[in-house]
Amino acid sequence: MEVIICQDAGEAGRRAARRIAAVLSRTDEPVLGVATGSTPLPTYRALAELVDAGDLDTSRVTAFALDEYVGMPVDDERSYADTIRRTVTEPLGLDPASVHVPDGMAENLVAGCQAYEDAIREAGGVDVQILGIGGNGHIGFNEPTSSFASRTRLKTLAPRTRQDNKRYFAEGERVPTHCVTQGLGTIMDARHVLLLANGEKKAEAVAAAVEGPVSSMCPASVLQHHPHAVVILDEAAASRLR
Ligand code: F6R
């Protein structure tokens, strides 16, 4: 694992964007793995700047999101489909038909998960996967105890994750209980992975992921086994590293 510590989230976003652009530029049919949440937003802004400056061509980029809430209509602004549209597809000028998000509304969720795995494989696999980390060490919505061999599947959100995501919902509104997420095995198949974290709240999870034992109690720790894993942190998120 390569760990890069930046002064602040803005610098981290710019460093991440340069790394991602370098990987995407090396291939004719680039496949980008995208995360939602607040952490990758500076990276998406920095990527959009590269596109606007003509330094990154996204016309042939296919993208796959990590996860989606179950039962959340795609036109709801809290859905990950809509979040990816606003924060990734439009600013980076991607073709909406080339941007995929797991279907949390599928009548048959199991078949939908298999179709998502098939779509990633048919696209040639993910070249570079962007990841945030939950306070409990989750990546995607692979909560603690997730199998390292897991594939895209239905998961129950951990109480801490639902608590953390309450900020996107109105007072008294129920945070979804279930999601569809790429598995840890799916994520590990990406040719490059880039884990981002900002702020003191993530410091403990980052230390467990980077320096702790590889354990399903901290799902992100599986990235220690990835041959091309880069961790980009601001100083606060790096504050518990030894
Ligand atoms: C989002 C995702 C999650 C988030 C994580 C951190 O698609 O898969 O693993 O990356 O919960 O969220 P933020 O960045 O909002 O702290």
TrEMBL record:
Gene: nagB
N-terminal signal peptide: none
Keywords: Allosteric enzyme, Carbohydrate metabolism, Hydrolase
The protein's name in its UniProt record: Glucosamine-6-phosphate deaminase
Domain (Glucosamine/galactosamine-6-phosphate isomerase): residue spans on this chain: 11-226
GO molecular function, one term: glucosamine-6-phosphate deaminase activity
GO biological process: carbohydrate metabolic process; glucosamine catabolic process; N-acetylglucosamine catabolic process; N-acetylneuraminate catabolic process
Root EC class: hydrolase
Pfam family, one: Glucosamine_iso
Function of the molecule: Catalyzes the reversible isomerization-deamination of glucosamine 6-phosphate (GlcN6P) to form fructose 6-phosphate (Fru6P) and ammonium ion.
Provenance organism: Acidipropionibacterium virtanenii
Record-annotated active site: D67 (proton acceptor), N136 (for ring-opening step), H138 (proton acceptor), E143 (for ring-opening step)
Family: Belongs to the glucosamine/galactosamine-6-phosphate isomerase family. NagB subfamily.
Annotated EC: 3.5.99.6
GO CC terms of this entry: cytoplasm
Pathway: Amino-sugar metabolism; N-acetylneuraminate degradation; D-fructose 6-phosphate from N-acetylneuraminate: step 5/5
Record's catalysed reaction(s): alpha-D-glucosamine 6-phosphate + H2O = beta-D-fructose 6-phosphate + NH4(+)
Taxonomic superkingdom: Bacteria
UniProt cross-references to CDD domains, sorted A to Z: GlcN6P_deaminase
Site entry (Part of the allosteric site), positions: S146, R153, K155, T156
